[in-house]
Amino acid sequence: MKPISLGFRTDLMVRRLAGARITEHASHLVVATPANPGFWWGNFVLFDHPPRPGDAARWEAVFSGEFPDAAYLALGVDGTDGDPGDAAELARLGVTVEVNSVLTATRLAPLARPAADATIRPLTSDDDWARAVALRLACYEDEASSPDTARFVERQLREERGLCEAGHGAWFGGFVDGQLRAAGGLLGDNDGLARFQSIETHPAHRGRGLASTLLHRAGTWGLRERGAHTLVIVADPDYHAIGLYRALGFTDAERQVQLQREPCPDIDR
Q1: Is the pLDDT assigned to residue 215 strictly greater than 90?
Q2: Distances (CA, A) of 189 to 12, 143, 166
Q3: Quick one: what percent of the chain has pLDDT higher than 90?
Q4: What whole-number distance in Å separates Cα of residue 243 and Cα of residue 250?
Q5: pTM for this model (two decimals)
Q6: Single GO molecular-function term (predicted)?
Q7: Band (140; pLDDT cuts 50, 70, 90)
Q8: Is the pLDDT of residue 269 over 80?
Q9: What rounded mean pLDDT belongs to the chain?
Q10: pLDDT of 256 higher than 60
């Protein structure tokens, strides 16, 4: 199976760079990230079509066979039009359907309102990355105090730091008065595509142009210094941040479908 979805192609690019195992079958791909088994979208099955009548039991059996210890279910649907598939099969799977927008840009528009008080630079030191962990936990807000959430975030940032230090991109920070208040990565395999990852702003510092300024700096770096010809970002179409991306010159390219069923609340993610 060769995915046609740009969203999943760049997801798989990042997973490969991170050392994930990607196993190809006729109708699906299995993506496994042993270093972070609790990362649902690092351990999932990508199918080559939306679920059709009779697919639910087979798809769940495929996932369970590949991830027997998983308490969740994560299934990707290859395609570009956002079709989630047969409603009855989705009900049998008991999944939540997420249809996200995949946006691309080959050049960036000028910043309308740059964050003049921010310093934007790549994260480099142990202290920088420790601050990135704290920032992500702050963005989790209600979940931040959970030890499971803290472990999950630490694993994520460890992987992201490793990708940057291996030369696959950079993680940019937006510092205000010396404190990390926004962060996000841009990763690629030097084949022309560069994928934005985890653009986040501290809850107390949103609406000040930090994310836009960071995205513009990182995207310009990717286009000019990394030789990327296309920047890719995936966004919730109903969340306000998508307007920020469009203002920077990103345009909607396709829709990406993810199906997931969360574990019971008392099960470690």
Answers
A1: yes
A2: 11, 33, 11
A3: 89
A4: 9
A5: 0.94
A6: acyltransferase activity, transferring groups other than amino-acyl groups
A7: confident
A8: no
A9: 94
A10: yes
CATH architecture of 118-228: 3-Layer(aba) Sandwich (3.40)
Domains of the chain, by residue range, sit at 6-100+257-261, 118-228
Collect all residues with Cβ–Cβ distance below 8 Å to 209 and sequence separation of at least 6. 111, 113, 114, 115, 118
Question: Would you state the structure tokens that stand for residue 152, as one six-digit string?
Answer: 């999950």
**pLDDT on residue 268:** 40
